Amino acid sequence: MTTSLKALTNLRWLPAALMACLAACGGGDDAGNSSPGSSAGLKVYRHSMDESPTSLDPVQASNVYANHVLINAYDTLFSYQYLARPYVLKPNLADGWPEISTDTLTYTIRLKRGVRYIDDPCFPDGKGREVTAADVVYSLKRHFDPATRPQGAWLWQGRIVGLDAWKEAGSNYDQEVEGLRALDDHTLQIKLVQPYPQLLDTLAQGYSSVVPREAVEHYGREFGIRPVGSGPFRLVSYDTARIVMDRNPGFRQEPVDLAAEGYDPATQGQYGLERIEGRSPPFIDRLEFQFIADASARWNSFTKGDEAQYTTIPNEQIDRVLTSKHPITLKPEYAEKYFFYAGMEAGFIFQTWNLLDPEFGYNEDPERERRNKALRCAVIKSFDWPARNDSFYGGIGTIFPGIIVPVVPEFDPDLSRVSVTRDVAGARKLLEDNGWNAANLPMFTFGTTANVLNRLMFEQFRAWLKDIGYPPEKVVLKQYATFGDISKAWKQAELPWVVKGWGLDYPDAENTLQLFYGPNSSPGSNDSNWRNPEYDALYEQSSVMLPSPERTEIYRRMNEMVIDACLTATGLARTRIHLWHKDVIALPDREIVGGFFLKYVDVED
Amino acid sequence: MSVAATRRQSLWSKAAWKLRRDRFGMLGLAVVLAHFVAAVGVWLGLWATGWGDVAGGKWDSVSSEHWFGTNLIGQDIFQRSIYSISTAFEIGLIVAVLSTLLGAVLGAMAGFFSGRATDEFVVWLMGVLDSIPFYLLVAAIAFALEGNPWSMHVAMISTFWITTARLVRGEVIKLKGLEFVEAAHAIGVPEYTIIFRHILPNTFHILLVQSTITFVAAIKSEVILSFLGLGVKDGMSWGLMISESTFEVLAGFFNNFLAASVLMFGLVMAFSIFSDALQDALDPRQVS
Predict the structure, then answer these.
(1) Mind telling me how many Å the CA of A454 is from chain B's nearest CA?
(2) Do B73 and A466 count as a contact with CB atoms less than 8 A apart?
(3) Does A37 fall in a domain?
(4) What is the Cα–Cα distance from A470 to A440, expressed in whole angstroms?
(5) CATH number reported for the structural domain that contains residue A469 in this entry
């Protein structure tokens, strides 16, 4: 046998050749097919989430998943401080705080100079141009153009002078809107119809991302998958399993001032955040979002060690991972490898009666309507919040009375907890005193999407109702295939009982109080369809007030009115336990808009 | 036993004699009967009446109070398992009886009128229904019936009759050429009387075996459909229990999964063994 034949038959060279070939083939792939091996030399942070966004067009940024990506691809005028809790606004693309007229109707906002869009073929010569006030005007106008199928117009509807009329007139972008004007390249003026204390919060939403008109016109329908912004990252690839973004090398230099970001060394000192002080973000070369719907698969991806670097603990793993729930502490084997942060959600879980159902709500017969209220109150009394918390939220949720959630400053910790305390005897007496018995109690349809946990929630609720004398055969389950289907049923007021979660759009109790404002009735956000003139008047009065003790007083009065009317079994704010690898320098969060922290993430070399 | 007495023995008595001597078959029958007694007790309201009650804490372990422990919301797993037996029997019996009946009637008519329009239509219908994937058909029927609790039964009956019909059709084609049928024709017995009074009773051994096979298939399908969310809407089923267990096992809690699996395995296995024994006992080649 010759030497050359020996070489061919001895296949020890084969793995090396294959690796060389693979390396050569992979060299040209910059579309995010990175693995720990192929991204060697890059600082990569892999963030796992349970769902993927359906569009990256800011006018359709209706969920937290889209917001996570959008606010990192685009700029918004305002943002939230990275570390301050409760959440505190800060200027972002805006150059400082706006000038506000004494009647609080005119806002003049100056933009930072020299902020540029990423280089993209949509621009002449492919070079990104400077972001101007006209871009902000254009971006907000898009929400009032039916052709864009916008979902965020409610934030500014009836608020900005001339904007609704501009829509009525055909949404011509070349036509000026009196209340939304670019005074020059770096100055924006917004004129309001009436005071709108939450205006600046709305300008921090993913909806208000600043987009260049050239990109929208250049990409057309594809704009939803090709963001062209001035944010800290630029999109490299996007599919339903993963989004890859690379650092925007032209992102403005803004060194981190931890004190200005609300840093609290006492509670946040262990995360190593001091290492980003004085440095300009972003600190990582690549940001990867991994969308893994199944909680156990997400957990495996995280604990494997070389995939997702962040996750939340699935409910079924809580007992395995925690040593204690109050306070929350990790078992040593997890504490050794991961940082954690237990954050209360900015929102709540609640279930609302639909008063348009004559069996439980409004009725032509005033006597029946009175008895219906007693029935509603009895059902609410049967609700066992601690059991619900223990079964479905790991026993770490926060139960509170009313609809003002604990994360907002108007929350009243001293409010009576009677409405969240189970009282079976009281419920039975209420039914008996008002002439209800097993024979005349109405059929109760419990609507839910078809999955096993929702079914168990129904069974638990039916068992509680049985305890107060509601026959189980009168409590029936109606399952809907998708969230869209049940959402449609809610909007059409088809179900007597609406089981829902609500995430705050901005940290202001107004965002939950509007859930019971009469004009917001179905198909709006008021699923109860409650119309109380006194409540509505208070809402209208408070909605134009700036934060003050007087406004807080009104909010709390409205909260008590909702409780007294037996409209809703409420509430529970879930606690999310965020877990991340110890080589990641961050304080992850997904509340309010979600994803602001990603700009500040760093990974140890 | 005298020769005369042996001659008087029918197919049925020979089969019964053979079946009684099949120890595995009788063991299978005993297990099936035990499950059946449990199901009857549920129907009569003697036990498992608290299957929907929240009677304990989250994932309580096995105790004298909760023999199989409790589930996520504190419901007694033993009671839910026993209640699920009645669900399985209810679906198994309804589907087995109706699909066997439908298969017998359509199969007999197709066989008797073989080569004519009736036969061609039934054969075409069987071909069409056979070509639709079962779970797709169930989903379509469930959608068409808008969450009706009987959608699963309708879907199963509309597909399970086909095998029975094919077997009966073949048997009837064979039987209709025999002398007793020709004699019935000769004395002017109407065709449908011949089919239902003279021919169909001679296919009972096929129908009996086929109905036991259908019973088992219906139970298994119910569990799978309930697991997928297409089955039992209101009530309890082993499929729903296994569905609940998908996230419980990740937390190290296996009671739901084990209870449902063991009981279902026991019933399906026992019924299959009994079905095999019955098939052997009724096989004319073996009986004679």
Answers:
(1) 11
(2) no
(3) no
(4) 10
(5) 3.10.105.10
Cα angle A444, A450, A452; round to 5: 100
Q: Do A478 and B54 touch (CB under 8 A)?
A: no
Burial of B215 (C-beta count, 10 Å sphere; 0-12/13-18/19+) = buried
> Residue A533 falls within a domain, yes or no?
yes
Query: What mean pLDDT is predicted for residues A190-200?
Result: 95
Q: Does A494 touch chain B (CB under 8 A)?
A: no
pLDDT tens per residue, range A403-454: 999 999 899 999 999 999 999 999 999 999 999 999 999 999 999 988 889 9
Q: Does the beta carbon of A477 lie under 8 angstroms from any beta carbon of chain B?
A: yes
Interchain contact, A296 vs B234, CB within 8 Å:
no
ipTM of the complex: 0.84
Q: Would you say residue A415 lies in a domain?
A: yes
Residue A75 Cα to chain centre, angstroms? 18
| Structural domain of A374 | 347-573
Burial class (CB in 10 A: 0-12, 13-18, 19+), A290: buried
Name which of A296, A299, A391 is nearest B72 (Cβ-Cβ): A391
Cβ atoms of residues B38 and B82 within 8 Å: yes
The answer as to whether A513 is a domain residue is yes
By Cβ distance, the residue of B57, B75, B233 closest to A477 is B233
The domain total for chain A is 1
Query: Does A456 contact chain B (CB < 8 Å)?
Result: yes
The 10 Å Cβ neighbour count of residue A323 is 12
Q: Which helix (H) or strand (E) holds A187?
A: strand A187-191
Nearest residue to B10 via CA among B175, B202, B183:
B202
Q: Residue B73 is nearest to which of A317, A460, A478, comparing CB atoms?
A: A460
